Structures
1.
Amino acid sequence: MPVPGNPMRNFLGRHHQGLMLVALVLVSLVIISRQLQDSQGQTYFAKSVIAVMSPFQAGVTGAVGGVAGLWDEYLSIRGVKKENRKLREEVNSLRTEIQGLKEDLYRFGRLEEFGAYVSETDLRGIAARVIGESPDPWTRTIVVNRGHKDGVKTGSPVVMPEGLVGRVIEVSGRSSVVRLIVDRSSRVPVLVSRSRARAILEGENSGNCQLKYLQRTEDIQEGDVIITSGLADIFPRGVEVGTVAQVIRKDYGLYQYARIVPHVPMSRLEDVLILEHQSSLKDEDGTP
């Protein structure tokens, strides 16, 4: 008798013989399909399994293919990024090398100018590089990378092809301190190149200098070139110093004054020439 409240068990109890028969038929078909082959030698059972599994296999294959594609794309992107990083490093290295070559060419050009200047003026000097400057706003000095081991002596004049720079005031083994002509304590005996009027050039601690002790009756004009006079045996004679920018003549007094703009840009010094000895330069008329 069927058990109340359990429909599945009641169903199996009523139809168990029929279900057994169906199961036997299915098993028989499976056995037969595993033995029967088509014209290509493939069993019908295998074909059935393939037919049933094909949609699932296609899905799995697509998913695997998609994952593989993403992985390949990821590896490709990583490779491109790595290559880009390598190229950027090479570009930066080349830029650094090019900048170094530019600096070498610039220094080579300056040394050529120094060589030509020495040849034209019959002066001998030691090329030096500026490695420091005074942090004190009340003094205008620079430090160069040449000292007494290189033949530099205290008091040596410092020049450039453009004109006078200053004078060595301190010397150590491999470096020296140079007082610039724009320093307030600098004093240089000079001449007005056109009129040969004598004066003293003093620094203003700015970028300019001034002429002092210039007789009121002397001829001086804006645009006149100022050169070293060679007096006091400090600086060679005839080195250009600067150009007159302004003449100041008061209504009284024995002297007149002038503001001078140096020919050498003191705020942008990189390489200078320290003279080994003093020697007169030729004047404009060719006489020593």
2.
Amino acid sequence: MLLIDRIGVDIGRRLRLEDAIDWAAENQVRYIDIQLDTGANRVNEFDDARAAAIREQAARRGVTLGLHTLSAVNVAEYSPFLSEAVDAYMRAYIDLAPKLGAEWIVVHAGYHFTADVKPRMEAGLERLKRMVGHAEERGALLLLENLNKEPEDAEVHYLAHTIEEWRYYYDRINSPAFALSFTANHAHLMPDGVEGFVDAIPLERVAEVRLADCFRNGHEQHLLPGQGDFDFGAMFALLERRGFKGHYMNAFGTLDDMQKARHDMVAMAREAGAPVT
């Protein structure tokens, strides 16, 4: 498959799902992901008839769909009532994914409040194990994303933003229903950088690579390519030479920004010597 066909667009909350599929097909975008938390796309707004129609539409138009849960929902929650609600939220995504024909669901490890790292990580791991078991039963695939660092003096920090924290989860969960989503720009914020992450992680378990520009060792930003100092060409060359065969996902700016950037990225990859065909 051509590299351009493997670079998708994160629709997020921008369009109704049916409209998102049409937009992707009309723009020759083969991969999209979408969040099902608001408006007409709320996960509880899909009956079987609507889900079946979307599945047929995506297949007919050649669009591969993925879902992306909200990182604000704390997968590391352990409080009564809230804990059960997080389970219900994630099960709803998992139950709906095969009905829509969605091929993956991006999930997160949650966040902690500085003084409670260990119990939060333990709670998140146990929840992810339960959800992976549910995904096995439903025929769904969960992709655990490495999230972004927060300022050092912040009280709240995302989990799985370092190699060590990410490894804590994927070393303990082995299932055909569980893989990884590597956000390369998040790695760019860390001392290890993209190359350090790629050297350390099991690349064969990475199904998706997420992309945006930002500044080295900086803070979380989803900039258009060229607005930061992320080297997209070097990143494509590194991953493609290491044998990455999955899809990429642009996550920045407007739909038009992400669509234009797909073509710009192929040019950057070609210039860096990465295979683009």
3.
Amino acid sequence: MRSGRDSWLRRRRSGAGFTLVELLVSLTIVVLLSTVSFGVFGVVKKRAMMAREMAAARNLMTSFSLYSADHGGEILPGYRSDAEVYNDRGEQLYAPANARYPWRLYPYIQDVEGSLLFNGNEAVLEENDRDYLVSVSPNLGMNATLVGGHYGSGSLLRPSYRIEEAVGRFCVRHTSDTRHAPDIIVFLSARSDPEEGWEGRGYFEVQPPRVLTPVWSHEPWSQDARPSQHGFVDLRWGGRAVAAMLDGSARAMGEDELRDMRHWAVGAAEANDADYSVHRP
């Protein structure tokens, strides 16, 4: 053992370089350390991005509550084109950009980057039709069918008086209806179909697993599946989505939880029915 050490010392004193074996060992160590560092960095970055989405979810709920306070308790509609709406440059917007929640909520949030578009989705703002794209592709989609109401032609079930005569009150439209608030989803991580005009990390609406009939595919959620097969919900955080709840809180929810209708509809929560669907009372 001593003779080997003496030989190594003699090489160092004589100015000899590293041996090939020593260089390979050193290179291997550097590569391993780099791999570990990049892996840790990736995990930290992912957690930071998720935390940013959680903060955005809470900001949206603060603005959501301010809207209700300013409209006599009326809950923000998920899609309705009957309001005078302006963008962040003070320009009036028209259908369909004025119908979706982002620009309707903007006066109460004053934050396009940070609460509506973030984590790389800011590229929307550089597009020529930015106002339309901001309206259609915020990072978080709204549970428009069962909270606030979707009054457009693409509605799964428009909350009209005629329909409610047939199936009962299924949509939360006023703060007086906000029972089971900690359990009811308002906003959720979303993604759009490519043909919607922007293949990005957001969509203005998320759809529940069931309404009158099943909406979601029975197949497990997959990044490769079309977003519409699972209601435009994006389980982008390790199989979980960020959810903003009706009481203003935010949390991460997995697919099993999200398939439970008690997290989507007040009627389902009151009936304690995970497989609830809207039907004649």
4.
Amino acid sequence: MGYYDYFPPSRPVQVSGGIKAQSQRGAFANRWWAKRWIAVLESFDIGARLGRGRSYARQGQVLDIQIAPGEVKAKVQGSRSTPYKVSIQLKPLSAANWRKLTAAMAAEARFSAKLLAGEMPTDIEELFEEQNLSLFPKKHGDLETDCSCPDWSNPCKHIAAVYYLLGEAFDRDPFLMFKLRGMEREALLAQLGEVAGNDDGWPPAEPEPLPEDPLAFWTMSPLPETVTGPLIAPTPSAALLQRLGPFPFWRGETSLLETLEPVYGAMGKGALAALGETLTEHRKA
């Protein structure tokens, strides 16, 4: 067996405070667009390095990930004292191509509505294909990857670990996929607004100005006895936080939801107590 036929496994240096995958078992992605990204990685047929990459992602060996238009840069702690530098490049689309895409998206308001709700429209790939473009990489050659480690294989386990963590991040925020293709979230929404103009409520109308008299702003009008209904703590607790999903590139030992859920519960109880006291005082007045 030659040197290039076998690269012996090594034990990585343990680190603290690294980016640890929040899916500690099973799939790294739940939504279809994140699964598509993971599917590209798994189509590379890199054998055992794929499993090692999953382990690295779940152990917190990735120290840093920076997503920029067209490129992802990361640092991964391997078996050597100095972290390895990882680069993943995906060719950004041109400004002219993005103008064509945003014009096509703006023609149907559902695209903007889905994206603002944190979802990638299921037919977004068809829209890209109609413009002879692609949102996701279709083959290994669409991605240029590099790692400073001595492993001859590309992608290596360090690159694979970053791929998996990117899948988790894309799962939560579909705009990151657009960013990798060269379009930032704010710029995309701005272009959609410019194309759509003021039709169909896009962009949103300006809010009404505050009253000039401060007393009018801070004074409540009389409230009927039944206006609020029974004061009951929301169930489940931290519902909004649960809707947001896993926090991207989380570094804690426990998930953000587990960390903040008791805080949300305590805040809810305090808010209910304060509201009850306020309503009682207001009705007495």
